Automatic annotation (TrEMBL):
Subcellular location: Cell inner membrane; Cell membrane
Gene3D superfamilies named among the record's database cross-references: MetI-like (1.10.3720.10)
UniProt keyword annotations, A-Z: Cell inner membrane, Cell membrane, Membrane, Transmembrane, Transmembrane helix, Transport
Membrane topology type: Multi-pass membrane protein
Name of this protein: sn-glycerol-3-phosphate transport system permease protein UgpA
SUPFAM superfamilies: MetI-like (SSF161098)
């Protein structure tokens, strides 16, 4: 006969949930509600005087060609970082899952970059690819490739993508490796006995069993690209040159903190929040159907 655990006190479950609920209310719902409120106001740079203007901030925002450029840059940037960081991490994880000599050292070195702050990661890559002082940029210039992320927008975007991917690969690697180690070896061996080659075993056995981990990382990486890459862009390019690396989250900062337009900045943050929530909902609605638990 199965026994079930019963809490004697009715308040205990609420007390256990209280810390997390408090943190969520203070650091998510309260700032989100303030952003929504401010998006309907026109405020001075110091936030001392405000005037209700309705949807004027949104109307002015969507009348800016620069905002649509930022949306396009965000789409390209987020797609590249998400696909590359997941692909590279999965490749490294499959290699680390093998019986390699010194494998523990290799795994430790792979995880280290995650401890680096985004701004520091951006500065490191900037020094590596600095057009005149960079250890890798100088050979490129000697080979005739005019690499200059300080003046060329495409080069600047490539640089911040590489820095963002390098920063996130460690996180993805950790989860992919844990997912690979949780797959029963007997299932893979059965595929090998049936005559399936390494690639066929990976796509028909290993990758489907990794789908819950992949789906989780896909959601996490989307949030990472939209929000946590701000430090990289701010430290490396400051949105330049000529706005070529200005993503939506950096434009929120540039218009609000640097430009003093708090109403437009709040409206942009609301639009960004809606986009991220919509993308997450779409992933749970459609992508999760292909996840095999």
């Amino acid at each position: 006969m199965e026994k079930s655990v019963v809490f004697n006190g009715r308040l205990l479950p609420y007390l256990l949930l209280a810390p997390q609920l408090t943190i969520t209310l203070i650091f998510f719902y309260w700032p989100a509600s303030q952003a929504i409120r401010q998006s309907f106001l026109r405020e001075d740079a110091f936030g001392l005087n405000s005037e209700f203007v309705g949807l004027e901030n949104y109307q002015a925002l969507f009348a800016q060609p620069e905002y649509y450029t930022a949306i396009g840059t965000t789409a390209v940037f987020s797609s590249l970082v998400t696909v590359l960081s997941l692909g590279v991490a999965l490749l490294f994880a499959t290699q680390a899952d093998k019986n390699l000599k010194g494998g523990s050292v290799y795994k430790t070195l792979m995880i280290w970059p995650y401890a680096v702050a985004p701004a520091i990661a951006g500065v490191l890559w900037f020094f590596i690819f600095h057009p005149t002082l960079g250890t890798l940029a100088r050979p490129l210039r000697l080979m005739g490739f005019d690499w200059n992320p300080m003046l060329n927008g495409t080069h600047a975007l490539i640089l911040v993508v590489m820095a963002a991917v390098w920063k996130q690969v460690a996180y993805n690697f950790l989860f992919f490796l844990a997912g690979l180690q949780a797959i029963p070896k007997s299932v893979i061996e059965a595929g090998a006995i049936d005559g399936a080659g390494p690639l066929r075993r990976f796509w028909t056995i290993i990758f489907p069993l990794l789908s819950p981990t992949t789906f989780f990382l896909l959601v996490v990486n989307i949030v990472y690209v939209f929000f946590e890459t701000f430090g990289i862009i701010d430290a490396v390019t400051s949105g330049g040159p000529a706005g070529s690396t200005t993503t939506m989250v950096y434009k929120v900062f540039a218009d609000g903190r640097l430009g003093g337009d708090l109403g437009s900045s709040a409206a942009q943050s609301v639009v960004l929040m809606v986009i991220v929530i919509a993308l997450t909902a779409i992933q749970f609605r459609y992508v999760e159907r292909k996840v095999q638990y």
